[in-house]
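User: Quick sanity check before I run a bigger batch. Here is a single chain. Can you write out its predicted 3D structure?
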Amino acid sequence: MNSEIANNISVIAPLVVVLFMVLSVYVLDRRWRNLQTQLAKVTGLMNESHAFSLNLVRHFMPSFKVEKYQFRGMQPKAGGANIEFEDLSLELPSGKKVLEGVTGKFQAGRMCAIMGPSGAGKTSFMNALCGKATYGRTGGSIRINGEEANMASLKSVMGFVPQDDIVHQELTVREQIQFSAKLRGRDGLSEGRVERITEDVLNVMQIDHVQNSIVGGVEQRGISGGQRKRVNIGLELAAEPVLLFLDEPTSGLDSTSSLSVCSSLKKMCQLGMTSIMVIHQPRYSLFTLFDDVLLLGKGGKTVYLGPSSGAKPYFESLGFEMPSNENPADWFMDVISGEVPNSQIPNFRPEMLFDLWQDHAHEQRESSSQPLRGSDARLLSQAEERAILWGKLEEAWEHIDVNRDGVMQADELQELLAHCSSIQPEVEIVRELMDRMAGEGAKEVTRGQFLDYLCSLSADVANDQTLARLDAQGVTGMRRMFAWTTSMSAKKEEASQESDDEDDASTEASSRIADDLESGVSEASTTCLRRETPGFVQQMHLLILRRLVQWWRMNRQRAIFLAALSLGGLILAVIDRFVVSGTPKWDAMSFLNLHTALALLLAIFCLQVFGNDQPVFWRESASGMTVLAYFQSRLMVNSMDLIIQTFLFTAIYYIIRQPGVSFWYFLLPFGCTAYAASGWGYLISTFVPPRHGPFIVSLIVFIICGLLGNPSTLSNFLVGGVMEVCVSAVSITRWSVQMSFAEAVHTMHPNPVGVDKFKYDMDKGVFFKRDWGLGSWWTAAAALMIMGTVLRIGSFLGLKFMNRSKQV
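Assistant: Done. Predicted structure follows.
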């Protein structure tokens, strides 16, 4: 009796370890939630303070152009990506050509659309352009900034938004964006910069109000479909891509939501990002947002490529007439499909559009290469507006500076904000604006700081003291680009002034500016387009943190599985102790049933580690995530589940059954079983589709545990040769039962009689027949460790090389 009590007490030590592990994750989760709540509050505070700033400007000069939202983390691209494609084609293995001879160019910083009727090869063209058309043979050439492109080398600065909303269901909206910014952003980004980038994406995609909501999925209700679509796009924007491809980003959205999403992408293009998307028959107001549009006809040939505003005049010049009140985008599709008659070509066929475009292409390219006029006037007008606002603010300063001390204190700023907005601002908002104008912790704002900040609200990128301290490294590549952009604007302004005197001089100056822009992009192709991203260690750290957050939020599913596992251990223990009361505690068959049940349950459970998130993994791997870091992080976090489940199953059986050996030595064979069985689950999940995984696992475990490890038949396999090697290599219970049986014999020294003696001698003859010179127990333990390790290596290889075409 005393030995049973001592053995039961030995269960407490591992229980304490398990409870401490769970408690640690709980504390981490609470701290994480508090941090996310604080960040959401910061986002709201920043937006409110910006709104008060806009009210200030509008009060003094209502006509002054201000940006509704300014980027605070993202910066202008240090050079964009001009994409040129010549005779681009795609041929399927069957010999069918789905794309043929597409030639043209998408310029940096522009939003471009790919349109056409069904079967025109829109998605095929985009896949060929971004290097994802692995299902066929691509022809032609692609150049980035004038150089032959290797799209695989551009992963760090290229984004791809799939048509399906592939996101992490257990994470909140903010967490999705935040982890994407950290994993795929520039290496060395400060935590503050990452948070600002996250806030930029949340605000631009208009999902800041649901930032702490779980995204959810089919089983757990989360955000709406439109919000989920925005998160899908935001994951790519968080990586600050220079080049972004989108496959029908408005599918499933109503016309208003589609317009809002494309407007958000248009704003991102203001930073120099080139956006190329496949889109299906947009409304007219959305169509006009696109700078350029590529229209493809059936067979994958070009029908039109150029500014969106030029598509309608082009088709009308060919003899097509658009009815009044017709949506131009729908009309274009009808023209391409041959549904619209042509007044100039009586026997018109859709195939003629290809030749008509070829005849027109040379003239169209020449006209598009000319510098755009009118931009200088806009820039000059903006400069004049800034000067006017500056003057108005200087005149009003003596009224703003109430106490006439030459600076503005917090109470004076609060009074000014209340006067201009008719709303009393909170103290936190006043403090935030003070920090922006004069720096962190500033107690007063000078006239120059006040004027500088308000006049900067017309820019796309915020320029204030709070952001200045985030750039501890001084003049980075982004700041060089900002300075270069300012220099180019100055040259344009100078050229505009010259044009007032002499038109020829203006033309020469415009050509010089164009040359400077081209050289700037060329230089950027060797710097910005080769971005350093976080390495293996940093990715590993972030992926473990992300998986821990997901792990804690899966407690409901975990509770259901633990209940089933506990019930299994309970039933087996009751049967062995009370129902079949004559079963000796050393009996190998009872160990076989136990280990087989545990192996089956854990192998099925481990299918979800890599099986459930396959589309997310493919997307992240294609974006440059290290497969080994992903693999190791998942295994490390899942190990907590394996420890908890193995301990619970074993402890319940042990307490009821009282097997007569030390709990630790009773537990270790189950731990080795769990290590090997989980390896089988990992391996199958990387090679077999998720819907087939449970059936395959059940069949395999039944064979390698229930059949090949059965003590009554095992002696038939252990006769040397290939059969013994195969059984020893794949059977879990061939080794795990040996561990439990060897420990029972060593501890209890049984001396059975009758039938039990026959069974005892048979089990000894099987399990003590072979060892590697380490003893039966250690030999079995080593074999299971080797098996589990080999299975994990196979799982990694399967994860990395299976479905390879989906990881490019």
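The chain has three domains: 41-75+374-524, 83-368, 585-625+657-807.

User: Great, the batch can go ahead then.
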